[in-house]
Each structure stands twice: as C-alpha cells, then as structure tokens.
Hints:
The structure holds two protein chains of two kinds. By secondary structure, chain A is mostly helical. Chain A is built from twelve helices and no strands. In chain A, helix 6 crosses helix 7 and helix 9 runs antiparallel to helix 11. The model of chain A has no long low-confidence stretch (mean pLDDT 88). In chain B, the strands form seven sheets. Chain B has a five-stranded mixed sheet with strand order 1-2-13-12-11, covered by helices on one side. In chain B, strands 18-17-19-16-20 form a five-stranded mixed sheet. Chain B has two domains: 49-258 and 507-529, D-Maltodextrin-Binding Protein, domain 2 (3-Layer(aba) Sandwich); 289-501, Roll (Dipeptide-binding Protein, domain 3), CATH 3.10.105.10. Helix content of chain B is 30%, strand content 22%. By secondary structure, chain B is α+β, with helices and mostly antiparallel strands. Chain A binds chain B through residues 40, 42, 44, 47, 61-62, 127, 130-131, 134-135, 216-218, 221-223, 232-233, 235-240, and chain B through 247, 250, 264, 266-267, 269-270, 318, 321-323, 325, 378, 380, 383-384, 386-388, 390-391, 401-406, 408-409.
Amino acid sequence: MLQVLKKVSAEPLGLLGLVLVVLMVASAVLAYWIAPYDPIALNIIDRLQGPSFKHLLGTDQLGRDLFSRVLFGGQVALKVAFISISIALVIGVLLGMVAGFGPKWLDSLIMLFFDTIRSFPTVMFALATVALVGPSLMTVVAVIVVTSIPTYGRVVRTQTLSIKNNEFIKAEQVMGASTARILRVHVLPNVVGPLLILASMDIPTVIALEAGLSFLGMGVKPPTPSWGSILNDGYTLIRNTPWPIVAGSIPLLLVTLGFTFLGESLRDQLDPKLRNNR
Amino acid sequence: MTSSNISKQEPDGLSRRHFLKTTGALGMVAAASSASEVIFADGKKILKVRAYSDLRSMDPAFSQGVVDEEIHSCVYSKLIQYKPGRKWDYVLDAAESIEQASPTTIKFKLKAGIMFSNGYGEMTAEDVQFSYQRIIDENLKSTNKPDWGSLQEVTVDGKYEGTIVFSAPYPPAWNIALPYIVGNIVSKKAWQEAGGKVDTSTPCESGPYLHAEWQPKQRTVLRRNPQWHGGSAEFDEIHILPIDDENSAQIAYEAGDLDYTRVSLGAVGELKSNMPSHTVLEEYPSLFYVWVGMNVENETMANQNLRKAIQHAIDVPSIMQASYFGAAAPSTGIIAPGLTGNRAQGLVPPGANFAKAKEYLAAAGYADGVTVTLDVLNKAANVTTAQVIQATCAQVGITVDVNLHESGAFWSLGDSSSGERYKDIQLILNRYSMAPDPSYATAWFVTSQKGVWNWERFSDAEFDKLESAAKAEVDASKRDTMYQRMQDIMEDSGAYRFLTHEATPVVYSDAIKPAFRPDGLPLFRYFGQG
C-alpha cells in the first residue's frame, strides 16, 4: 500500500489529490481542536459579516462562524461517505460473489434486486425515502447504501464469473476446498483493487448527494452543520452576502477534485493493464 | 491638417466625432427615457407583473386563493371591490348602491349597462343571484362555500335590484365575501351553457380586462376590455408571470422583465441602501400569521406547565432579526393590526423570560430538562426560526429536535384523515394565510377543526361559543372584544406562541402607479401609468 501511495504521490495530479484528501480528512477529524468557534452557537448581533480575522469566512444569518461550520460540515460529509460506502461495499461484495458463484436462479434473483434498485433515479429515491421516514443522517446513509450496493455488486459479480471457470478454481474444488474458502482466498483478492478505485471515485458523488439532500432540507437536521445546508443558507442570502455560498462551495469543489484525482491515480497504479501500458 | 479639414473629408459631410457625440447624446436621452418607461412593447402598453403561483381556476367557486383572485378581480365585476390604500374599505363596482338593510339582509342595485363579453348580454340581478347561490349549492361542492357564511339566498327584486339574505347576521360578508373571491359575478347564461362550472378558461368577462391567454407555468395574458363599464382600462395588456421564488422575481424585476413584484424580507435592507434606478419600494403589514403550536393531546405536551415554559423560552425579537431581517414585527395573536379583534398586547411578552420559563419547567416536573420535537416546513425562514427556538429553549434545558418536512409531508402532518402522524406532533411551526376579517383566523381553532386545521388539538368550550357568536355579532365594539378574548383563551392554554404577521415588501417601477390592499396584495385592475 505504501508503495502504491509513493507512486501516486510521484504524479502531480495524484499528489494534488492526495494532499487535498489528507487536508480535508485532517481538517474534519481535527475540527474540534482547530475550529475557532462553536459551529452551532448563535450570535445574532454578528450576523452576515464578511470575512475578517475574527471570522475567516464570515458569518451566517444566525451569526455563526462559517469557517467553523465548514470544518464540522466536513465531519458530516466524510462520516456519511465512509460509513455508507463501507457498508455498501461489504454488502455489494457479498451479494456480488454469491451471484457470480452461486446457482443460476440465485444469480437471477440478485440481479433482479440490483436492477430494481437501479431503476429508481437516486435523487428521487432519496426524496421519497426522506419524505416517508423523515430526514436524518441515518436516512441519508441508508439511502446511499441501498443505491450503491448494485454498483459494487455488479462489479464483483462480473469479476467472480470471470474467475469462476478458471482451471485453478476447478482444481481447488476437486481438492475439496469449500466455496467460502475459494471466495475468500481466490476471488476476493482479485476484486478488491477495482473496488477500491470505484469506492474512492464514489466518495465525491456520495458527498454531493448528502450536500444536495441537505440543501433541500432533507439531509441532516438543524443545527448540525453540513455543506449542503450552508449552501442553502447562501442561496437564500445571495442578495445579502455571497460568503455562505463561497464557504459551502469551496470544500465541495476541493473534495471532489481531491478524490477524483486520487481515484484516477490509484486506478493507474492498481490496474495491471494500464500500468503495463505506461 | 486641422479637424475642420477632416470633417470635410467625410462623405456625408458629418464628422465621425460629431456623429459619435450626437449618437452618444441621443443614446443617453433614450436610455434615460426608456429606463422609466417599461410598458411599451410592440406599440402596446403592457404591464408585466409577478404572481407567486400559476392560475388554477377561472371559476370563482373553485378559485384557490390569492393568485386566482388577482386575475378574477381583473376580469369579473363584483358589487364592491377592496379600496386601494392603507386602510380596509370598499368602493362600489357593479353596484350603484348597496346597504345593510337589516342584520340579515343586504340590498343592492346594479349599475345599468354592464355588459358581459362574447355577446352574453347585460348583467342583471339574476346573474348576481346565480353567482352567489351556486357557491352555497351543495351539489356544486364549491371549495369556497365557507366564505359565504350564513348566506341563505339572493332574491331578485327587479332587473337590477336584489337582496342578499342570510339566515343569521354575517358581518364578514362585507370583508371577505362581497369584495373577495366569492363576490365575483358571472353570467348565468354563459355558465349554464358551460355546464355549470368552468376550469382554466372563462366564457365571458365584465371587468376592465379580458382573459386572453393562459400558457401553463409561463404566463397569463389579460387584454383590455373595450366594453368595460368603468371606462377604459389603463393598459392594453397585463402579463402575469408565475414566479415562485422571490429572489428570482427580484432578479427578473431588475432585468426589466417585470414592472412589479413582491420581494423577500431579506432583500429590504439591501434595496434601501442600493435601490435600483426608477424603483419604488413600499412595505405593507401582512395578514399572514405565524406561530408555534403545541399539541395539547400529545403525551408530553399535555402538560400545560411545559407548554407555558416553552412560551416563555421562545424569544420572538431574536426570530424577527434572524428570520425576518428586522422587517417584520412580533405579533400579539392571530389577528393582524388594523382588523377588528387585534390585541394591543399579548399575555406573554415577545421577549423570552428564562427565569419564568425555568419556573414553569420545574412545575412541569422537568427541572432536569426535557426533549421535544419541532416540526417545520423546510423553507429558509422557517428553518432559521426553528434554530433560534432551538437555541433559546436550550438555555432553559429544553432540547428541541427539529424535524424538517417538504411541503406535501408537512401539510398532512396534522390531518387526522392522513394517518396517525398527528399524534406525534409536539411543537409545530405554522403559518396560515388570512382574509381581512377576524372570523377567517379563529375559524380554524374550534373543536370541530381538530385534525383538520387545528393541529394543536386545542379545545375550549368558551372559545367555540365565542367563535360562533362573534361571526354573527353586528356591533363592531362587541365583536372586537369577543375576538380579543378568544386570543386570550388560546394563549392562556399555552398551546400557542404567537410570532409575527410578517410583512409585504413590494418594488415597482416608477413608470407605473400600482394599487394595493392594506396588506400589500396587488389590485391589478387599479394599476395605472406613473
């Protein structure tokens, strides 16, 4: 892994992506220590201020420090992204391997499940779910998990199918290896690489979805800071001050660029075909 | 070579510099004149205005509120219309005379010669009879039937004369029936030919404008009615553009696409300091009422001391600053200033009293704190208000968990016919529209409205009795006292924390001369050129 990271950081875009991702993760993790203000503390007298040494990104309509809210908003974004993608990965890998290695009827059933989920536009599905069960961080995570499972599941299934009929797998079977062992020892290591690339490329999409739902008032509950809710405040206040829009947009932009550059660089390093072409 | 030599070399005898100077000057003159003269296009005088939603019905029996009425009042006539200005009053329209003949009867006489368009002839008392009685006809199932209160019938006493008869005195008729939605007069013949009701088009008109065109979600076009009994309408056409978002409407206004729009409260400060050229900003008090309701039947909120603690923990002035940018004032109840029944002050002062809130909280048995939910429609001002409430309540140990809802989900929360969710409501931030009569506000909080619009599930025998009596009270002073008492009862129950009536800031080009109701809603039929 360290070797891969070394190679990633040897490329300018890979290095930029890595730096941005590390910065975003570090600022979110260390928000409690580096944020100058409580992100939910109201100070109406100081509302709608522009950037200053006191408030680096200004304040919102409730006088809350936007810089602090952006830092804590990063916690929400990364929490949603990592938790939901991790859960979706685990379930997607399991279902994908079962579909690829299991009997035909089970494969068809799982594919039907994947296709059914994929037939819903993600945002519409999210809006309907939130309308039904109410907005919360858990709802957002659940929506992302459900809509992401088919993506990972399909990749794993395809990889499993291509490995399934290899001679060495048949040899393992003849020697009495269990299905679980074959999946764990032979199939899983072959699908991990592509999945990691896919997951890193998915992180900005998931963060944007969380921000989108929060923008629509259907993500995290107030007063929890989220980049989407900061953007929504900015949209409402655009004629009064541009700073909330700026404060909400910059981290989204940086995190998207960071994870995209990092993902592409990882793909270049982990995909044997691309690596050999270099 | 001198400059005069150069000018002589120009083929048309005009120097380039002279040309530039002249065209530049002409351009400035043109710009100066056109900036305030926005109403001429294709040789027509066109007024372009914004409405917050699209047309939904051209039938007064099924009109769905303010926007439909803004159009109806231009194309139909009424016996009386709201008088433009800052004080609620009416002016005669189709009526030559109208009077309260007895507590239960109103006599009227129509002006002669009011013609319906498309050859539907002259307006008579029979048309008035048809227009009003069809709305109270059970078979028609008009959504606006309640506006006519105790209307029994309209008798035709002559070609132009008639009597509106009520089964019980109904003073609101003068405020919310005759000059508003259900007061529009339609042609009996035309409506009968149309099968008894119409949808988004109309068979004939009698107002200053004709309904010329409707492009869904694009615009409604009204055209001058050459037959109008009131003379000649000011504009050849009025274009009404549905624009939901006030910020977008303001951008459209500043781009010159609109001559009038309501703007957001947040824009007022900026407009005052940086007013676009040839623009007038006016601020009107609104009739809307915003409050935090508490469900008295919910297990937690049934505790009156807890409700009172919350009343005192909510700091209304902070909400006015944060959510309404200081452009709205705290309210004392559900009846706005200027209307009968408005209270000079409420029982609970607008500012929070944390010491009192803590006392009530301790008396409620929650000295160590309590968690309650606050359901909110996910509009910007509401979300901000909810966060201010959250912050001030936290200071006395009340944790407020805010639940945001999109419009569809929110408006079914308290509706008991839509499931069991109404039982879970604890606190709810609500905002109702209002017509200029106090009965329009109190009607939603009687016991029979529990689970319909009374989401607090508030029930009080004295309130119900007063509500019924006040609607029929003809003595204005007694009526005033009754409505004030009703709001006292509401507030004393602890189920209500009244916040504001909001405000209506509007901008318009100085090329037009607008006309507004006292609550800032536009009366397009009276709009003129500046």
